[in-house]
Write a structure and sequence with these properties.
The chain is of the alpha/beta class. The chain is built from 15 helices and 14 strands.
């Protein structure tokens, strides 16, 4: 196979998303090739040994590496400005590997309390089973990060914007505290997307994505991505993935390679639609509160202006009547469908208190800002007037 993306790092992001990481076989295909194979053959035994010692470039086994998956990894690394990317089977596999791989029993982790339910499970429930201490803090309070640091603190973890409350954390400030403590900062950047926020440039050490969301963007495939420096990824994370096997399938990687070509077009349009819908919601009387990273009234508007180049495609809003009011609205929607996915071309709506965050007690949900009347709305590619009309008739039933 021959590389065809020489000099792509100097090109604009949109161009890198079309051409980055591409390699072509002897057939000179235009589209990226899909390599559906479990293993690879070697010219001789010495070459096989070299492949496993990483002294001979090439591929060995599908659990360890694959040409199509490698193209996705290289394209995302070029786009993100990272030295290395590693793909995983799901977004949560990426989070788990990025958090667990560098840690040892006796280490300490500090994390923001406002997290997706599964992310908080990894921090709060899973890590302590293996002797890792954890502390949850108010993510927007930088002093709380500093006060939580212990001599054995090795890792910070946060989402920004958070799921589902759209809380935005000052990544550069948290990165500075982590550096002072000698800890590594892992940032889940799913809601902002790599188009609107660049955690590595803000001082983060590792950035993770659920590629299931905006990167696929059309409700088809699961996948995850971990990006960072070559030294950091290869120190622990790469071997963790190699030995535990949360491998991304070549087919899913191929689908996501094609999706990356249209990522800017889709996300920018979704963000425009989200701005229109959020503006309309904010002008209505029934939503008790509307949270959108593109609004000047967002609690962290000043931070957003500094570290995000665009809004999210997500809106959070609260309706009167708690769970019953939220259910009335969800059930009345005709165009917008109920689903716990997000970042899709189709607009999706969900009630976090009974789905993504249902395992938490009411007290914990309240502390996270997840009320019974809160609704998370992921805006798609439909015409915004149709989305507004659907929400208008649904709100009338609350």
């Amino acid at each position: 196979m021959s590389a065809s993306d020489g000099g792509v790092a100097s090109l604009h992001p949109e161009t890198r998303l079309v051409h980055g990481g591409t390699v072509r076989s002897q057939f000179g295909e235009t589209s990226e090739a899909l390599f559906l194979t479990q293993g690879h053959v070697y010219d001789n035994a010495a070459q096989a040994e070299g492949r496993f010692l990483n002294t001979d470039p090439g591929f060995q086994y599908g659990r360890l590496s694959n040409p199509t998956v490698a193209m996705l990894e290289n394209r995302m690394a070029a786009f993100e400005g990272a030295e290395v990317c590693r793909a995983t089977a799901t977004g949560m596999a990426a989070v788990t590997a990025a958090v667990m791989a560098p840690l040892r029993a006796g280490d300490h982790v500090v994390a923001a309390g406002a997290l997706f339910g599964s992310c908080r499970y990894i921090i709060e429930d899973h890590l302590p089973r293996y002797g890792v201490e954890t502390t949850l803090v108010e993510g927007t309070d930088i002093e709380s990060w500093r006060k939580a640091v212990r001599p054995n603190t090795k890792l910070f973890f946060l989402e920004s914007p958070s799921n589902p409350t759209l809380e935005v954390i000052d990544i550069a400030a948290v990165a500075a505290v982590a550096k002072e403590a000698g800890a590594k900062l892992v940032v889940d950047n799913v809601f902002a997307t790599p188009l609107f926020q660049r955690p590595l440039e803000l001082g983060a050490d590792i950035v993770v994505y659920s590629a299931t969301k905006h990167i696929d963007g059309q409700g088809r495939c699961l996948g995850g991505l971990i990006l960072g420096s070559k030294e950091l990824i290869e120190a622990d994370i790469q071997n963790f993935l190699r030995q535990t096997g949360p491998s991304l399938s070549p087919f899913n990687a191929w689908v996501m390679l094609k999706s990356l070509e249209t990522l800017p077009l889709r996300v920018e349009k979704q963000a425009q639609n989200a701005t229109r819908v959020a503006d309309w919601l904010a002008a209505q009387t029934k939503p008790l509160k509307v949270i959108f990273p593109g609004h000047p009234g967002h609690p962290q508007a000043e931070i957003i202006a500094r570290q995000m180049s665009g809004p999210s495609t997500l809106i959070a809003f609260e309706v009167p009547g708690g769970k019953q009011g939220a259910y009335r609205l969800l059930d009345a929607c005709k165009l917008i469908r109920i689903s716990n996915n997000l970042g899709d071309a189709k607009s999706l709506i969900v009630h976090p208190a009974t789905t993504t965050h249902q395992r938490f007690t009411p007290e914990v949900r309240a502390a996270m800002g997840v009320t019974d009347g809160m609704i998370r709305l992921s805006i798609g590619l439909e015409h915004p007037d149709d989305l507004i009309a659907d929400l208008e008739q649904a709100l009338a039933k609350v």
